[in-house]
Amino acid sequence: MGDVIQFDPFTSIVRDDVPPHMDDFGRLLLIAAFSDLVKLRDNSANERSRKEADAIVTQIGSVLARYEPEGAA
Question: pTM value?
Answer without folding.
Answer: 0.59
